[in-house]
Amino acid sequence: MSDRTSAARQLAALRGQGRTAEADTLAGIASQPSSQWLVDQAAPGSVEQLSRLAAEVDRTPVFVAYNIPHRDCGQYSAGGAADAAAYRSWITGVAEAIGDRKAWVVLEPDAVAHTLDGCGVKGDTAAERYGLLAFAVQELKKRPQVRVYLDAGNPGWAQDPSAMAGALSKSGVAVADGFAVNVSNFYSTDRDAAYGAELSTALGGKHFVIDTSRNGNGPLSSEAWCNPPGRALGEPPTAATGRPGVDAYLWIKNPGESDGECGRGEPRAGEFWLPYALGLVRGGG
């Protein structure tokens, strides 16, 4: 729900302080719907509350399940469930909290991609992860109005698309509604659509969604993923993409929330950072 995002709360604070110009700029973010990230044990309670509120106004919430064990390869968003059993219990709780209400769930950003890069999620650890993701897909799809999209990295990640398709298959994408690309990244919509189409072909025509929250200027470089300067908001969220196989443009990353300290002492991952948010609205200016 857009009135509960970090941007919406910051907007209200700015108006209360009489900072009208900044508030008017920030409305470019706060006026748009974005996702609710689920990162800890309190998630089922939040899911039930928000899905009920959304149902009352005939809206569909977008949740991001982000609690896989060994999350984020120990980087700025490290954490996750303690073990496989804890994760299964957690995701079951999330599914039960949604119940028979509508919801879209983007499942575990980076989790599949990190089994294909230098993270070290290999062998038995990778097999466990694929099994957990497949379990999550199955649990969520037991709910009649839930759509599930497994994260599939982005077109700049150093990986073979055929290997990604294979890893997604092991992770239960056949049961899911599709996959997500460009989560929390900056690649242009055209490039994301081309990458997604290649994966879709390899996966028998699976549909996908694109995170357009911060891709208006494209990436600074393939390596600059942590609060790169000069970026801009992308296309507003919509299910009317006009692109075959692309179910929606979504603001999966909440614009204005930091990617992490980035080795420069910037706000911690997930913290709202007003100067960066204003820069996104201004188109990198």
- Can you count the beta strands? 7
User: In which range does the helix fraction lie?
Assistant: 25-40%
The Cα radius of gyration reads 18 Å
* Structure class: alpha/beta
Question: Which term fits the overall shape?
Answer: globular
Mean pLDDT: 95
Strand content: 5-15%
Number of DSSP helices?
8
User: Separation of termini?
Assistant: 28 Å
Strand order of the largest sheet: 1-2-3-4-5-6-7
* Residue windows where pLDDT falls under 50 for at least 5 positions: none
List the secondary-structure elements in sequence, H or E. HHEHEHEHEHEHEEH
Biggest sheet architecture: 7 strands, parallel
Task: Describe the protein.
The chain is an alpha/beta fold and 285 residues long. It is 36% helix and 11% strand. The chain is built from eight helices and seven strands. It has helices at 6-16, 20-30, 43-56, 84-98, 123-141, 161-170, 189-202, 274-281, and strands spanning 36-38, 62-65, 103-107, 146-151, 178-181, 207-211, 246-250. A seven-stranded parallel sheet has the order 1-2-3-4-5-6-7. Helix 6 (161-170) links the parallel strand 4 and strand 5 (178-181). The longest helix is centred in the middle third of the chain and has 19 residues, at 123-141. The two termini are 28 Å apart.
